[in-house]
Design brief:
about 30% helix; 12 helices; globular; about 400 residues; alpha/beta
Length: about 400
Amino acid sequence: MRIIYLSKRPCRFWTKVWSRNICLSRKMSANSPPGKSDDDGTQDRAVPPIPIPIRDLEVDSIRRFLASKLGFYEPPELTESNVEKVLDEVSLDGVAKWIKNIRCRNIITLAGAGISTSAGIPDFRSPHTGLYHNLQKYNLPEPQAIFEINFFRQNPKPFFTLAKELFPGKFKPTISHYFIRLLHEKGLLLRHYTQNIDTLERGAGIPEDKIVEAHGTFYTSHCLECRKEYSLQFIKDIIFADQIPICTDCPGIVKPDIVFFGESLPERFQHCLQEDFMKCDMLIILGSSLEVQPFASLIDMVPDWCPRLLINREKAGVKSPLLRLWGLMSEGLNLDGSSIRDIARLGDCDDGCLELADKLGWGDELRALVAREHERLDREGNLAKPHAPVPTANEPIAEHHAVPTEPKL
């Protein structure tokens, strides 16, 4: 009988290494300026910090699967028995108690469109109300085409029409945004990673060095051809005149530095994730469907013991147990009640943040902060202009209240 060789490398080990590094080896995540298309062929691929034999790992997985089917191999049971348990109870109360623990000093927040819906900005995928559901008027081949770089090059008009409707500066930051600011003011926020392009994190007073805009920003724009940079005010004036921004130096289209499908992620995203996630001792996921890669894979880059809290209207980031077993995808969240670190608080993000703030003893402080800042925005008229970057975390918090409104080049 033929003997099938099976690698002795533990499934969990190489799956974990794969999940922490694969996003760095993908072409779409290579380091290049925002707006640079992968189709240009001019960018360099990022080099993973720990080279791993992805091809060998895939072959290993197939070997194990076939061997199991033939009865030659029994896959190991994946448990958390060897992982340190830091939560006294796997609940929102347990999370609050851990955040107040002296060991919890580096919280990372991951945010999607759900933290901005209460400001009046639609998310992408909600039935009937989501952005993708209401794009029929733009006569697109498919809803996602409005954010595809190749379609944009051929027909930029639908995007700029939509951009006029959703232009930053029309909306106030939400309770969720100010909860993240409160984490910063308590000295607990390591970094805030956001998929959003609405600049509301800046409007909430979160310092720019604490923010990673994984999908880029409206705040600056570049010509797709010569890469000349333009201010937000320049592009706003043209968009609100129902025209397409064209470079003053060449015939190229000027595009905001938001990341389209088919483009590279910002270099800052690559740099920060390599430094941040192994330091993380609490991960809070807010209002994200965790469907867009590589952002969705970030939940697996924290240490095995690190608690992960999902505040969302529905469960997200939960991978198939079968796929987890064979290492074919990243592990994802375990929300079936058997985890020692994963918690889901289902419902609106603002309600979840308020509930957590109450359990932390910060509820009244958060409510007062929201009321004070909304009053300031109304008084200063900052909603008439997009939110500018906030001073860095090295400057006094008191100086953050006067958020500059004029864009910088």
